[in-house]
Amino acid sequence: MQEFIAVIPARFASSRLPGKPLAEIAGEPMVAHVWRRARESAAARVVVATDDRRVVDALAPWGAEVLLTADDHPSGTDRLAEVAERLGLADDAVLVNVQGDEPLIPPALIDQVAARLFDDPDAAIATLAEPISDVETLFNPNAVKVVRALSGRALYFSRAPIPWDRDAFARRPELLETDAWLRHIGLYAYRAGFLAQYRDWSPSPLERLEQLEQLRALHHGHAIQVALARVPHPAGVDTEQDLARVRELMQQPGGH
Question: 156 is in which domain, residue-wise?
Fold first, then answer.
């Protein structure tokens, strides 16, 4: 695999869970768990990008590389664009956006999404998805859905249950009988040259409605390659309930 850099955007003022990067899990801040997982991947370098000095200070005991970035970025991708510029990366350098609220992210998925971008040189972004097997996830707006073309490229992302089964969804189903639905895994690979373009675009109308930053790339006609995850992806932390679930998992034998 070609060389890539893993970047962990860690915004302190999360609207749903303020101070999320420093939420305690198994005696450590959440972002430290994410950083350790990224270090276990094939990434040549792991950088945490935050908007708050408290995150910088919290990671000091681990010797993590941390950049203090602007506090007005509308998305994690915008924060990565600043990182790419400040590191002086060449246009063809690849960065993987590892979400700062994924303390259980398998390192194998970080490697997979980077490899997927190398496999499709005409794609601006590579990302991952996994089948949805339960109704609750399908109708949960915190679980982002994706529809893709035969080529594997994304057609659209939404918080709504897409595709819409016209007949079965006339009433909310109790079971899903096909594998037509995919949950998007918020792990992205980009080239630095694309990020330089992305930061100059204003958030698109669809991005504002769905609150999904990847829609900005589709709005401007750029391709997003979507691969099926090779290993199971434990859900990240969006809410207090998610945090409680992850804390319980991390307390179990082998949970670290």
Answer: 4-251
